[in-house]
Structure formats: C-alpha cells, structure tokens
Amino acid sequence: MGDIFREIDEELRQERFERLWKRYGKIIIGAAVAVVLIVGGYKFWEYYSLKQKEKSSVQYWSALQLLNDGKTEDAAALFGSLVKNGTSGYGVLAKFQRIAILADKGDVLSAIAMYDEISGDSNINETLRDAATINSVALGLDQEGVQKPVLEKKLKKILNKKGAWESSARELMGLISIKFGDVQMAQKHFKKISDDSTAPQSMRLRASQVLAAINR
User: Fold this and answer.
1) How many degrees, rounded to 5, is the angle at CA 108 between CA 202 and CA 73?
2) Which of 72, 100, 131, 159 is 20 to 30 Å from 78 by CA-CA measure?
3) Sign of the CA dihedral running 160, 162, 165, 170
C-alpha cells in the first residue's frame, strides 16, 4: 500500500516540476540570452570602442542596423566578414551576433558549439567568455537528451569566482535543478539569489516567485 502512495507522490511532484519548467524555464532562458545580447551590443562595445579602428566600428553598427531593419541575411554576411577580417574586439562581438542569428533560425546545436568555442578561447576577454558560457547553457537546457552534469560543469567555473555573470549562472543552476527534479538544490540556488542584494532586482523577484511556487 505504501508503494502506491509513494508512486502517487512522485507523479504529483513530477507534474509540479513540469509546470514550473513551463512557467519559468522559457522566461529565465530568454532573460539570460537577452541580457547577454544587450550587453554584447552595448557594454562590450563601450569597452572595446576605445581601442578599435573606425572601419570595424562602422561595419559593426551597419550590421546592427541591417538586423534591426529585418535584413537578417545581409546582417549575417556583414557580421561574418567582421569575424574574419575585423579587429579583435569587434570580431568577437560580431561572432556573438552571428551566433544569435543562427539560434533564431533554429540551428541551436551549431550556436551552442560556437558559444563553447568562445568560452574556451583564452585570447578572448574573460567577461566575454563567461557571457558565451551563459548563452551556451541557456540554449542547451532546452535541448532533448541534455545531460545535467554537462550543463553544471560549464557553470561551475563562473560560480567559483565573483563576477558579472555569477547571478545569471546561479539562476540557470536553479533552473537545471528544476528541470531534473532536484527540489532542494533548486531552493538553495534561488534563495541565494533572492537574498543577494547585489543581484539585479528583476532576477531577485523571479527567484522569489520560483521559491514560492516550489514551496507550495
């Protein structure tokens, strides 16, 4: 008789996690990618713009304008040219944009592979490498057959240091725990975000909402 109740309890718990995943999974993944792209399009440019040549700057912003105008193919071609021939800073930024276009077209596996390539390139600024890791995990989390240890391994190197992407990495770790049914670990990660006064307010609010849903 006890086995029956345990099975029912497990089924109810699984349904709850599935609801949490549907409710918050896409939001957090979308937020992670959106933040990276916003930073990639502005903050990183601000950092590199002091050091880069005018030609690459003009090409990069021309490509962004084409993208904003819906001319995706033309933008991708110009970003691709910058990746190959542009100065180092704008070349990396262009690669981020090109990967995003690939992901939007549905070629997620290629996008993940390219993010991982950036993450492993020691010649690239560490903040940019961490941004690529965040994007890689955010995209990989929703892929069929994804393995929990693979995702966690990518994020742990960010969590083991204080940096710009620590809260984003922890949020994704919490979401990984939800996806794979580890309620205690999910609570731990989201509570840490909720209690962190240095984390973005929007992220702290999401963490509180997820915790409330988990604890019901």
Assistant:
1) 100
2) 131
3) positive
Contact by Cβ (8 Å): 36, 28:
no
* Residue 101: Cβ-neighbour burial (10 angstroms; 0-12, 13-18, 19+): middle
What's the rounded Cα separation, in Å, for the pair 93 and 39? Answer: 10
The pLDDT of residue 11 is: 45
The stretch 203-212 carries a mean pLDDT of 86
* Cα–Cα distance, 32 to 72 (Å, whole number): 22
Look at 73 and 20; give whichever has higher pLDDT: 73
Amino acid at 109: L
Q: Is the pLDDT of residue 13 over 80?
A: no
Measured CA to CA, the distance from residue 100 to residue 33 in angstroms comes to 9
